[in-house]
Amino acid sequence: MRVKICGITKPEQGQAIAQLGATALGFICVPASPRYISAKQIRDVVSQIPRHIERIGVFANTSCLEICQVAVAGDLTGVQLHGDESPEFCTQLRQLLPTSVEIIKALRVRNSQALVQANLYIGCVDTLLLDAYHPQMLGGTGKTLDWENLQQFCPSCPWLLAGGLTPENVNDALNQLKPNGIDLSSGVERAPGDKDLTKVAHLFQQLEARKMLADAELNSKIPHEFFDRREIHLPSHS
Ligand SMILES: O=C(O)c1ccccc1N[C@@H]1O[C@H](COP(=O)(O)O)[C@@H](O)[C@H]1O
């Protein structure tokens, strides 16, 4: 599963979080955010992390040109559109960005209409992301979604779950939903833009324990299923 830790501003924290197990680091390129980071600062973080770690820039309601410039200058592998970008905007951006750069469209879920809207983006973006709606803030709100009401959400493209995830509630979320990845920001912070490495380590412990449990369950099933199959394939004596 993809695990994106978002709102990285410090090279040493980016490096430590990559070592702890993040598959992606997120950088907030929205000037109004307390987690804002410039393309030059993103480069400073990126230079300290292994190349296989994804580097996602988060944008909101800005121009295609601005996104492309930061993507190149920041050496990004993906861009996350967290504002009110239309499917047409995403299509235009797709034509301008290299195909290797992933486009993630974040939907701030206010009601069930937002989930219907998700269909409009299929084919225009690579991945969808669900975040909680907040009347004043675009993201990094720490607000969780109503996971129970999302159980029917099954888009025909990969999707990431965001919104108020923490080391304490991540198991609960993943017991109810099966996203292709998760995205955490304020739930693993001391203050906006200042990640708490103890909380990040706790998150990966939770995910590791979860994986071990799933593997153990799988292993306990194999002998039984294997035995069943052998029985089915026994030659007939008639
Ligand atoms: O984090 C921000 O400041 C931010 C600003 C503008 C757009 C998006 C932003 N963050 C994104 O919000 C979600 C969820 O954050 P949280 O875990 O609830 O704190 C995440 O995808 C961030 O990339």
Q: How would you characterize this protein structure?
A:
Its EC number is 5.3.1.24. InterPro entries: Aldolase_TIM, PRAI_dom, RibuloseP-bd_barrel, TrpF_fam. The chain has 238 residues and is an alpha/beta fold. α1 crosses α2 and α1 runs parallel beside α7. The protein is globular and about 55 Å long. The relative contact order is 0.14. The C terminus is likely disordered. It binds ligand LGQLAAA5. The site of ligand LGQLAAA5 has 25 residues, from β2 and β8.
Walk me through the topology:
Layout: E1 2-6, H1 11-20, E2 24-28, H2 39-46, E3 54-59, H3 64-73, E4 78-81, H4 87-96, E5 102-109, H5 112-118, E6 127-132, E7 159-161, H6 170-176, E8 181-184, E9 189-191, E10 194-195, H7 197-232
Parallel strand pairs: 1-2, 1-8, 2-3, 3-4, 4-5, 5-6, 6-7, 7-8
Antiparallel strand pairs: 9-10
Bound molecules: the ligand O=C(O)c1ccccc1N[C@@H]1O[C@H](COP(=O)(O)O)[C@@H](O)[C@H]1O.
Ligand LGQLAAA5 binds next to strand 2 and strand 8.
Which ligands, by name, code or SMILES, are bound? Answer: the ligand O=C(O)c1ccccc1N[C@@H]1O[C@H](COP(=O)(O)O)[C@@H](O)[C@H]1O
β content, as a range?
Answer: 15-25%
The rounded distance between the terminal residues' Cα atoms is 49 Å
Shape: globular
Query: If you average the pLDDT, what whole number results?
Result: 92
Q: What is the share of helical residues?
A: 25-40%
Biggest sheet, open or closed, and with what strands and sense? 8 strands, parallel, barrel
The multimeric state of the shown protein is: single chain
CATH superfamily: Aldolase class I
- In N-to-C order, the SSE pattern is EHEHEHEHEHEEHEEEH
Which radius of gyration do the C-alpha atoms yield?
Answer: 20 Å
**Number of continuous helical runs:** 7
Total separate domains? 1
Structural class: alpha/beta
Number of strands: 10
